[in-house]
Write a structure and sequence with these properties.
The chain is 51% helix and 15% strand. By secondary structure, the protein is an alpha/beta fold. It has a single domain, classed as Rossmann fold, CATH 3.40.50.720. The protein has a seven-stranded parallel β-sheet with strand order 3-2-1-4-5-6-9, with helices on both faces. A two-stranded parallel ribbon has the order 7-8. Helix 2 links the parallel strand 2 and strand 3. Helix 1 packs across helix 7, helix 3 runs parallel beside helix 4 and helix 4 runs parallel beside helix 5.
Length: 271
């Protein structure tokens, strides 16, 4: 088992302003890594960076970027060209419950850029950089159940399935270069994404775990050089034992309800 600081001295975290991304930032700062914090919200990133600097004495850099925009990953890569990055946490993502055919194609393309293309571009750039330096770590964040297909979340689930397959394969491709790759596959983590998607916390079949606990497990899995990790013992059992057809039906019911809630919320705002 390796120590997370051995990847250092800098880590890049996308989607760092809240949820799992913020929890990664807090863990890595406590371990002494300097941080590049990337997301759309400049104010929240600056506040987080200043807080982590006060608490842990780390250096930080804020990169305000919309990773759903073509070319944005290149801007983040360029913004880190002058620092010795050894760890990439590619976490940024989003979703919109509902039938795929009811959603504007332009919005689907934007979300695919964020949920899949950006991960590809960042892994390609930083993976190459890490291989050249002979060491490095990559954590990609996917979603539990994506590989089985998620009705009423077909598009975003498909993109997350790509991320999971990509990371699992790269774990083996890059093993001989000194670069470790782990895919974190969260399923019941309590983050603001739940509210954004219109989900109700009572919809989840098992108790939600904190983002801090999930990211702690993810970093431990990276240190143990595991290709995939589902945080939470109960969710690992569910993933291992429950048939994909059942998972697909359960997730479909949850996302159908979430889509209806979002529609009602938007109608209420419009009124």
């Amino acid at each position: 088992m390796i120590q997370i600081r051995s990847y250092g001295p800098w880590a890049v975290i996308t989607g760092a302003s809240s949820g799992i991304g913020r929890a990664f930032a807090e863990h890595l700062a406590a371990a002494g890594l300097d941080l590049v914090l990337a997301a759309r919200s400049t104010d929240r990133l600056a506040s987080l960076g200043a807080e982590l600097h006060r608490e842990h004495g780390i250096a930080y850099r804020v990169v305000s970027v919309d990773l759903g925009t073509p070319g944005s990953a290149a801007a983040l890569i360029e913004a880190t060209a002058d620092v010795d990055v050894g760890l990439l946490i590619s976490n940024a993502g989003t979703g919109r419950p509902g039938r795929l055919i009811d959603q504007p194609l332009a919005d689907l393309h934007r979300r695919f850029t964020l949920n899949a293309v950006t991960h590809l571009e960042l892994v390609h750039a930083f993976g190459g950089r890490f291989a050249a330096r002979g060491r490095g770590g990559i954590v990609l964040v996917s979603a539990l159940g994506a590989g089985a297909g998620v009705p009423y979340m077909a598009h975003d689930g498909g993109a997350k399935a790509y991320v999971q397959s990509l990371g699992a394969a790269l774990h083996h491709e890059l093993a001989g270069t000194g670069v470790d790759v782990t895919v974190l596959v969260p399923g019941n983590v309590d983050t603001p994404v739940i509210d954004h998607l219109g989900l109700d916390r009572t919809d989840f079949p098992v108790r939600l775990m904190s983002a801090a606990a999930a990211t702690r497990e993810g970093l431990a899995a990276l240190a143990r050089r595991r290709p995939l990790h589902v945080p939470g013992r109960t969710m690992r059992l569910v993933d291992r034992l429950v048939p994909a057809s059942w998972t697909r039906r359960m997730n479909g019911r949850m996302m159908d309800r979430a889509a209806r809630r979002l529609t009602q919320r938007e109608l209420a705002v419009a009124d």
